[in-house]
Amino acid sequence: MSEEDIIAELYSEGVIRCKGIKITRNAQTIQTHTYILTFNRFQCPSVINMGYLRVRVEKYILSSLRCTKCQKSPL
């Protein structure tokens, strides 16, 4: 499914944004089966219903960016 289709299907669960996670292996970009969902709530739910499945939801915490030369964070 496209990201727009996922948002449309999960809108009733409070999903307002969806972004698929991609990895690079052997100079090839591969789409994984993991998505970052943004909810229209302050707290994310512990599970959401996707069709006939109940899917566990976990918080996604972005790792901080660091310079590869000096190891300083740009923020």
Strand order of the largest sheet: 1-2
Which class best fits the helix and strand makeup? Answer: mainly beta
Could you tell me the strand content as a percent range? 35-45%
Q: How many strand segments? A: 4
In the predicted model, the low-confidence regions spanning at least 5 consecutive residues are none
Major sheet: 2 strands, antiparallel
Radius of gyration, taken over Cα atoms and rounded to an integer in Å:
16 Å
Count of domains: 1
Shape: extended
What is the percent of helical residues?
Answer: 10-25%
Span between N and C termini?
35 Å
Whole-number average pLDDT? 87
Total number of helical segments? Answer: 1
**H/E topology pattern:** HEEEE
Quick overview of this protein structure:
By secondary structure, this protein is mainly beta. It is built from one helix and four strands, in the order H-E-E-E-E.
Describe the structure.
With 75 residues, the chain is mostly beta strands. Helix content is 11%, strand content 41%. It has a two-stranded antiparallel ribbon with strand order 1-2. The longest helix has 8 residues, at 3-10. The model has no long low-confidence stretch (mean pLDDT 87).
Draw up the topology in text.
Layout: H1 3-10, E1 15-25, E2 28-39, E3 47-50, E4 53-56
Antiparallel strand pairs: 1-2, 3-4
